[in-house]
Amino acid sequence: MLETPHITQSAPQQAAVIHLTIPRDQIRAVMGPGIQEVIDTVVAQGIGPAGPVFSHHFSMQPDTFDFEIGVPVSRPVAPTGRVKPGELPGAKVARTVLHGGYEALPDGWGQFMAWVDEEGLPKAPDLWEVYVKGPNLDPDPSTWCTELNQPLLG
């Protein structure tokens, strides 16, 4: 289920991130290990996670994803392996929340982008998801919540 979209201002959040450019069909294979790597790093450094995991997509071509997996942190992460300092940007965004399993994300994004287009909102090229509640908190996908954010221009 998709909540009614709205416009809001997000605050910038310092983060620990891993940047990936991968074939689209590898997303499920890389997300879990990438998330664990980021979390292990920030826990070892005593700086987080200071909020839920997110993925910040810079480009989503038909066959390739260019994105970061990250978590907010309480202070900058010391680069370790693939984990680097980053930021989830502050921006004016169109936002909604998807309730349910991750398999509903493509349709949820489709409905959300249709709303953004119907409203005539000028989209920035990036977007992000915040995994507010997921399998790390409850194995039942019906309880999961994913925040969808489309930054807006202007």
Automatic annotation (TrEMBL):
Domain annotation AraC effector-binding: ranges: 3-153
Q: Which InterPro entries match?
A: AraC_E-bd, GyrI-like, Reg_factor_effector_dom_sf
SMART domains xrefs = AraC_E_bind
| Name of the protein in its database record | GyrI-like domain-containing protein
The organism's taxonomy opens as: Bacteria, Pseudomonadati, Pseudomonadota, Betaproteobacteria, Burkholderiales
